[in-house]
Structures are given as C-alpha cells and as structure tokens.
C-alpha cells in the first residue's frame, strides 16, 4: 500500500462514480467499503492558532469527520484499489492510498 494526500476531483452521486488523479480519469467499478473517522483535531487551524503558530485558515472545525471510500477503479485494462477521502460536508477530496 502506498499512502498519499493528493487532491483529486471526484464525481459523487451518492457514492464516488469516477475521479481524476494525476491527469488520469478513473472509473469506479466497485465500492469495496466505506467508513468514517475523526480527523486529527490537534492539527486544526484553531489549535495551531491557540499555540501561537501562524495560521492561514479561518478556524474550521475542531472535531471534523473524514469519510473514506475504498473503491476498485480503472481505465481500460488498468485496475487498482484506491482510498478516496473527504471531510464530511466538504468537497475537499484526496486520494489517500493505493493498494498494489
């Protein structure tokens, strides 16, 4: 498994249908699983500001939730398993992991 935090563009219609990663369009063939987890609140803009660290954001949620989808996707003959993630309520999708 290779870990990433690459921003991606996802067509979402109740579930991910397709996404663009590194200029490649990948079509979702199958959703393997879906789960949610709490984000790292200690890394939030508000906590950094409270510690006196420079902050570029507007504050944001302390206890946001991240939704993760593990999907099988591909384009033509190439297929793989990918983890797509976003903060619940936002459209800030990232490619989180690729399984070999």
TrEMBL record:
InterPro entries: DUF6504 (IPR045443). This is DUF6504 domain-containing protein. It comes from Tessaracoccus palaemonis. Residues 5-98 form the DUF6504 domain. It holds the Pfam family DUF6504.
């Amino acid at each position: 498994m290779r870990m990433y935090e690459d921003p991606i563009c996802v067509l979402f219609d109740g579930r991910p249908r397709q996404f663009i990663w590194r200029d490649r369009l990948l079509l979702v063939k199958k959703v393997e699983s879906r789960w949610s987890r709490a984000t790292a609140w200690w890394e939030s803009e508000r906590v950094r500001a409270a510690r006196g660290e420079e902050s570029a954001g507007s504050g944001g949620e302390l206890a946001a939730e991240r939704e993760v989808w593990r999907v099988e996707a591909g384009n033509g003959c190439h297929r793989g398993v990918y983890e797509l993630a976003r903060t619940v309520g936002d459209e800030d999708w990232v490619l989180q992991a690729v399984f070999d």
